[in-house]
Design brief:
alpha/beta, Rossmann fold, UDP-N-acetylmuramoyl-L-alanine:D-glutamate ligase, 2 domains, 11-stranded mixed β-sheet, 7-stranded parallel β-sheet, 19 helices, about 45% helix, about 15% strand, elongated
Length: about 525
């Protein structure tokens, strides 16, 4: 799995690699010269790799290239990339912001001097003032490639004044933007609400150490664009010492934890899943969740629903058992007479008083026996309406809310970043696993680890897709998977199933039924990859 870093971890790794200027200045002459040489070599390395990516974007069309450089380390990277672009035959023009004429750091000043020595001053516009009569934005169009090296992550707060105007102009011209480190004006602080039009919008973001969690927030998608980690060398010892609590889940990680079916196994060896789902008018949710569970690899699946679902379930999912507590249109008594290995509650169960009462009794029973369950849809809505039930969710249970369900449970959040921070608190407080559904579904563990799913696809944006995920999760849990791993694996398999279904039916034409039916193929593809 790929590490996802906190800003503090990135700062620690960078400092260990190139040092902090104020500490370097305190060294003796010999040591200081060696450290400065290492720092300059690192800056040149970053510039070379940025130039390589920009050249690849240029291709053979030779578009106009503008490099916007700030006065700090990110500006130094940008200046070095411009020097390298010229060496590659790409005449990049540099706009260097040195407001007041004396703002350049040693890194930026040295990179500017190297650029002038190698290329000449005719390709450098050094901006001393950003007033209305002193700085005119260069011509930009949709074919222009803009290298954004103004601030990266150095500034850490919203752009103001002339810088804000520069960002807006770049965005309005719809240029192709390559951002170094981070789009200028963007912050990686999830609790900060940002005005996106005041931030440079990148087509490609070239991160140095690796991504932060902010890269996976939907509100930042138009800012980050595609992202890629450059292959610059960092201090190996520090990289190994950093223990990231956030990871990007891939096929290899899932393959290592998926249940293995032996040739001698019978259905009795592969676990029992129990799905509480359905009510009058919402039996489709029960069908989808149950069908997904049957495709997960577990040995036996039972759906507990209302009497009105008997013929629907027996004909739609004949491989599953169907039981009822005798109520005609909803579930009123929740029970687990067969001691199922994986239990899911919620798809389409409705929110009647009788259902809510029955769910509360059952949750307390599971809490007493410390048996984790999967909670989704109306189960979460019932708990939101009866918040005292939060204290009776069994430890290590899996909650699978989309944004609306999450906000009903834990309070309205103004952004997905704030929602993620709240999920960390709630998972730790209630000792539960929260799958915060989205394109990059986040699985939050009680120990505050966050696993980011990498298999998301727009094909999953269809009614009933969440019910499929719930049934799949219960089916994996039934196969004796740890709840934490079952949740992470289910999210990844769900995404792969969506991609497989979309190849057959098209993205727009993919339905939840298609996704459920592709689960088996998805699992096979992961195991064979």
């Amino acid at each position: 799995m790929l590490n996802i870093y906190t800003p503090a971890e990135i700062e620690r790794i960078t400092d260990a690699t190139i040092g902090r200027p104020e500490l370097i200045a305190q060294e003796d002459d010999t040591r200081r010269a060696a450290l400065l040489e290492r720092r300059a070599a690192f800056v040149a390395n970053v510039g070379e790799q940025v130039a390589r990516e920009v050249a690849a974007l240029c291709g053979s069309s030779k578009p106009k290239v503008l490099v916007f450089a700030g006065d700090g380390l990110c500006g130094a990277y940008a200046l070095e990339s411009a020097s390298e672009l010229h060496a590659r035959g790409i005449p990049a023009r540099v706009i260097l912001f040195n407001i007041g004429g004396n703002m350049l750091t040693d890194d930026a000043r040295a990179a500017r001097d190297r650029f002038i020595a190698a290329v000449g001053e005719e390709y450098l516009d050094e901006v001393i003032n950003v007033g209305p009569n002193s700085f005119v934005m260069p011509q930009i169009n949709r074919r222009t490639i803009v290298v954004d090296g103004i601030f990266g992550s150095e500034y850490g707060k919203p752009l103001r004044g002339g810088y804000q105007a520069v960002a807006r102009h770049i965005n309005e011209m719809n240029a192709r933007v390559v951002a170094i480190d981070l789009p200028s004006g963007m912050t990686t602080d999830l609790s900060v609400a940002m005005v996106n039009r005041n931030i440079v919008h990148a087509e490609l973001t070239l991160t140095l150490v690796g991504p932060t969690l902010a890269f996976f927030m939907p509100e930042n998608a138009e800012l980050i664009g595609r992202w890629k980690t450059l292959g610059v060398p960092f201090d190996r010892k520090t990289m190994e010492e950093v223990r990231c609590s956030m990871r990007l889940v891939d096929a290899k990680a899932v393959r290592q934890v998926l249940p293995r079916r032996l040739s001698t196994d019978s259905k009795a060896d592969l676990g029992k899943a129990l799905i509480f789902a359905g009510s009058y008018g919402m039996l489709g949710a029960a069908v989808l969740a149950t069908r997904a569970a049957t495709r997960s690899g577990c040995g036996k699946v039972t759906c507990h629903g209302p009497r009105c679902g008997f013929f629907v379930m027996q004909t739609s999912v004949p491989s599953a058992m169907f039981v009822t507590d005798g109520a005609d249109i909803d579930i009123r008594e929740f029970s687990d007479p067969d001691d199922a290995d994986g239990i899911a509650i919620g798809p389409g169960i409705g929110r009647s008083d009788a259902t809510a009462e029955g769910l509360g009794i059952f949750l307390k029973s599971c809490f007493a026996s410390q048996k984790p369950v999967v909670l989704d849809a109306d189960a979460l809505n019932i708990i939101a309406a009866n918040p005292e039930l939060l204290d009776f969710i069994p430890p290590r249970s899996i909650l699978t809310p989309h944004a609306g369900e999450f906000d009903r449970l834990f309070g309205a959040q103004c952004s997905h970043g704030m929602r993620t921070l709240m999920a960390l608190k709630m998972a730790e407080r209630y000792k539960v696993i929260i799958m915060l559904k989205g394109h990059n579904t986040l699985t939050v563990w009680p120990d505050r680890s966050i696993l980011v799913n990498s298999s998301g696809t727009e094909a999953l944006a269809t009614a009933g897709s969440g019910d499929v995920l719930t049934g799949l999760t219960a089916g994996l849990l039934a196969q004796n998977m740890a709840p934490e791993l079952a949740a992470v694996s289910a999210a990844y398999i769900h995404g792969i199933a969506g991609r497989i279904a979309a190849r057959v039916n098209g993205v727009a034409g993919t339905t939840a039924e298609d996704i459920a039916d592709a689960i088996g193929t998805a699992i096979d593809s992961i195991e064979k990859e």
